[in-house]
Design brief:
Blueprint (H helix, E strand, L loop, with lengths): L2 H4 E3 H6 L1 H11 L3 E5 L2 E6 L2 H25 L6 H13 L6
Parallel strand pairs: 1-2
Antiparallel strand pairs: 2-3
């Protein structure tokens, strides 16, 4: 991504909104919108946003796992499988 081409003033967004939305949707192009010379917002396509959210959720899970390991909150693999088998062998309450 060429950052220089992706940074635009808010007046560009006002005058070219349809083109910005089309490019974000079709090309996955991000646009950084400035106001008074400072970055204020990012415009991105919905698919790109969804991908970003999934990535962020995965990173949060990894960080949580690392914190659990550091704090000693772990269960041995054999115990995990034993618990899972116990849960799966219980009859459903709906039956």
């Amino acid at each position: 991504m060429n950052l220089k081409e992706s940074v635009k003033p808010i007046t560009y967004l006002k005058n070219n909104a349809a083109e910005v939305v089309r490019e974000a949707h079709e090309n996955g192009r991000l646009m950084i919108v400035t106001q008074n010379g400072e970055a204020r917002a990012v415009v991105m396509g919905v698919e790109q946003y969804d991908e970003w959210k999934r990535t962020l959720a995965l990173l949060k899970l990894i960080a949580q796992g690392e914190a659990d390991v550091s704090a000693g909150r772990m269960v041995k693999q054999g115990e995990v499988f034993r618990r899972a088998e116990a849960v799966m062998s219980k009859p459903d309450a709906d039956e």
